[in-house]
Design goal:
Length: 136
């Protein structure tokens, strides 16, 4: 009898569920920050709009990550470490955005989409590491 991976290995099922919830939460967060970015580029530079919308996205993402994605309780330790996940993602995203602005037509508009495609895997793995339940 062939059992699905999640029945043979509950950790694999949990990882898939977390990844699915991460993608859903990330989609919502990306949509929010993208709309904010598009509004802000009308009044400030693309890089300034990107960092401001990105910082607001970190706060929103932390709330989604603790309650929905990883289903862990909020802690000061997690909250203090969480921005470092996005610092790594931001570094990758900012490089991709700059490349887009310089080399692609309409780069300031599409750059954040490309940035998200590169930074999502990094942020999932690092978020999962930080959000692990604390052992007692």
């Amino acid at each position: 009898m062939n059992l699905p991976d999640s029945r043979r290995n509950p950790s694999a099922g949990r990882l898939r569920l977390q990844a699915l919830r991460f993608v859903l939460a990330g989609g919502l967060n990306t949509g929010l920050t993208l709309v904010l970015y598009w509004l802000l580029i009308n009044i400030i530079s693309p890089q300034a709009a990107y960092i401001l919308s990105y910082c607001i996205g970190i706060i929103f993402s932390y709330a989604l990550s603790t309650r929905f994605v990883f289903r862990v309780t909020h802690s000061a330790s997690r909250a203090l470490r969480f921005p470092f996940v996005y610092l790594a993602g931001y570094a990758v995203g900012a490089i991709v955005l700059q490349f887009s602005i310089v080399y692609l037509p309409q780069g300031a508009l599409v750059g954040p989409l490309l940035s998200a495609a590169f930074s999502i895997p990094i942020t999932f793995l690092l978020s999962r590491l930080i959000m692990r339940p604390c052992s007692t």
